[in-house]
């Protein structure tokens, strides 16, 4: 009971609301539509859209910084791994260890051995190609300091050598600022990969150390050329080892003082050293963030459409329902009498329009009977005219064909001097019977083709071996109805103007089939053929056949047949003439099946 009462109350409120809406002017309705369906949803969602834009941008930026950090780590580790692989090859190089562990008789003996070893090896080429410098240190007193070889004493006070000793000579990676101010080397940053060469220590009393100097400038250039679009720092502790911010190789290492609030941090361990990769976010304008998040914004706008849906529907009903009534009555103006609108409803512009329509209907209905009667008389005159045209066509096609047939029999009898013409008379009787039965101008194709076959038998009796024919009729077409004596008219033309004009034997082919929703009639002969201008003329006469052409003297049979086909198909039939002079001619007729 309570639900029923609530339902009635809701319906009552809805009806009162619709009544008020119907009385509003269209301008007021559009204003209400704008305030509640456009302005308010946009105000409510703008703040949320801004939040979504910035939040999604932060997520995307975080992901981009993570990708940059991974790329930097890969590139930096790739440089270090290249040096480590080279150090491994030198570490197990037996000839290099023998060279460093040999005791030389004097300085000349060492120099000769030094140049002999390095000139015959591919050692230098490998270092140059990888942009890696090499230094070898040993406590072998017979080795003179210079070139790639130096004494252990020269590095024993260095920090990296002490750390190497502390960890037992395992391979290590060090970063240092070389400010030794030697005459040929300026102070600069260096990255060195060091390890003790003790692989063959069991039979070698000397200490040997390998130091590979990586191309710091090349690594810095690689990092800068990656064009990440955001600042990147590789730090060891708080010391900036590499950065894409343009720090000079000639300066000492800086300290990292950047904020870690929005910075992406990634840790990396390489050969006993722990590194931190800092990627700082780029500065992006508000409009760029809006553009990047445009799909999300568009989605939110679509969601906003659902909120005012009920109100829009009711306002739309005020327009659509009553305008729909107007549309219905206007769609029925084809009827004998116009219909008034029973319930106009509302006092707005649409309501006034409906009232004015009813007044117009009452005034117009008084004139409809007069107009309707005049139209009926016009239709009767049109039908009478079409009947007259059809009778005119009938009166021309019958003697035209009959006289040609009788002339064929007469000529054959004179030439052959034969009197046994029973079969010919039988064929002629069939033709005459078709001629006399004009009660219905349409016949089945099966009946029409019997008439065509009788005519061709008659002509073959006349021409003998000079004429052969073939009829190919699709069984699905036999019951289709076409105007009487249309196909035989084109067959007659093929005989008289094609085969008769040619001294050599010829063929006539008649094909009837369905194709692409049309009934296709084809009459082809291998007779004399036609020139291109004559074919164009015939094509024109067939496509534009009319009663005026029938008044001309000469050949009117084709025009007659084409005109009746056009009348039967409401001018939707198509004609095509094709052929070549001396080869033959083909006439193709296509009639839409819906016209049959």
Shape label: elongated
Total strands: the figure is 17
Computed Rg: 53 Å
What percent strand?
A: 15-25%
- State the share of residues found in helices, binned by percent: 40-55%
Summarize the model shown.
With 596 residues, this protein is an alpha+beta fold.
Walk me through the topology.
Layout: H1 2-23, H2 26-91, H3 94-101, H4 107-120, H5 123-129, E1 132-138, E2 149-151, H6 159-166, E3 172-178, E4 188-196, E5 208-214, H7 216-225, E6 232-236, E7 239-243, E8 254-255, E9 264-270, E10 273-279, H8 286-292, H9 294-306, H10 309-331, H11 349-416, H12 422-436, E11 442-444, H13 445-463, E12 467-473, E13 481-483, H14 487-499, E14 506-515, E15 518-525, H15 532-543, H16 547-550, H17 557-568, E16 574-580, E17 584-592
Parallel strand pairs: 1-2, 12-14
Antiparallel strand pairs: 1-5, 3-4, 4-5, 6-7, 6-10, 7-8, 9-10, 11-13, 14-15, 15-17, 16-17
């Amino acid at each position: 009971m309570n639900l029923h009462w609530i339902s009635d109350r809701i319906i009552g409120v809805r009806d009162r609301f619709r009544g008020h809406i119907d009385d509003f002017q269209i301008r007021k309705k559009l204003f209400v539509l704008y305030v509640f369906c456009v302005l308010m949803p946009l105000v409510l969602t703008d703040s949320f859209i801004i939040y979504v834009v910035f939040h999604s941008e932060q997520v995307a930026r975080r992901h981009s910084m993570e990708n940059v950090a991974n790329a930097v780590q890969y590139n930096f580790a790739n440089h270090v791994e290249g040096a480590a692989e080279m150090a491994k090859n030198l570490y197990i190089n037996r000839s290099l260890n023998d060279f460093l562990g040999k005791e030389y008789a004097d300085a000349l003996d060492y120099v000769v051995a030094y140049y002999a070893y390095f000139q015959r090896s591919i050692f230098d080429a490998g270092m140059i190609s990888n942009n890696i410098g090499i230094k070898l240190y040993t406590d072998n007193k017979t080795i003179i300091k210079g070139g790639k070889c130096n004494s252990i004493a020269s590095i024993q006070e260095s920090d990296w050598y002490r750390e190497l000793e502390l960890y037992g000579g395992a391979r290590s990676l060090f970063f240092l600022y070389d400010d030794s101010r030697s005459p040929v080397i300026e102070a600069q940053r260096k990255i060195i990969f060091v390890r003790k060469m003790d692989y063959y220590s069991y039979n070698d009393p000397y200490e040997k150390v390998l130091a590979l100097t990586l191309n710091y400038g090349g690594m810095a250039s690689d990092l800068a050329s990656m064009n990440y679009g955001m600042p990147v720092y590789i730090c060891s502790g708080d010391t900036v080892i590499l950065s894409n911010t343009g720090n000079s190789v000639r300066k000492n290492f800086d300290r990292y003082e950047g904020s870690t609030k929005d910075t992406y941090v990634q840790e990396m361990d390489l050969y006993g050293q722990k590194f931190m990769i800092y990627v700082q976010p780029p500065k992006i304008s508000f409009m760029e963030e809006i553009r990047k998040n445009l799909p999300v914004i568009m989605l939110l706008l679509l969601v906003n459409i659902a909120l005012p849906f009920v109100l829009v529907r009711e306002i739309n009903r005020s327009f659509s329902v009553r305008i729909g009534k107007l549309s219905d009555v206007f769609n029925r103006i084809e009827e004998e009498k116009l219909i008034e609108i029973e319930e106009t409803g509302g006092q707005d512009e649409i309501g006034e329009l409906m009232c004015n329509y009813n007044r117009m209907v009452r005034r117009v209905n008084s004139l409809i009977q007069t107009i309707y009667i005049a139209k009926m008389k016009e239709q009767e005159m049109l039908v009478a005219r079409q009947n007259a045209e059809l009778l005119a066509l009938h009166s021309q096609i019958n003697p035209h064909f009959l006289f040609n047939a009788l002339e064929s029999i007469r000529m054959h009898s004179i030439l052959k001097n034969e009197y046994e013409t029973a079969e010919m008379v039988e064929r002629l009787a069939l033709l005459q019977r078709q001629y006399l039965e004009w009660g219905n101008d349409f016949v089945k194709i099966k009946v029409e083709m019997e008439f065509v076959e009788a005519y061709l038998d008659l002509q073959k009796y006349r021409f003998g071996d000079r004429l052969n024919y073939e009829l190919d009729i699709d069984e699905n077409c036999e019951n289709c109805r076409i105007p009487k004596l249309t196909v035989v008219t084109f067959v007659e033309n093929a005989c008289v103007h094609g085969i008769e004009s040619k001294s050599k034997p010829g063929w006539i082919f008649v094909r009837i089939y369905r194709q692409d929703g049309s009934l296709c009639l084809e009459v082809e002969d291998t007779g004399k053929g036609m020139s291109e201008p004559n074919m164009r003329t015939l094509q024109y006469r067939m496509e534009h056949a009319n009663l005026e052409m029938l008044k001309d003297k000469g050949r009117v049979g084709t025009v007659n047949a084409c005109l009746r086909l056009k009348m039967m198909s409401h001018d939707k039939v198509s004609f095509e003439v094709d052929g070549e002079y001396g080869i033959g001619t083909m006439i193709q007729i296509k009639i839409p099946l819906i016209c049959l």
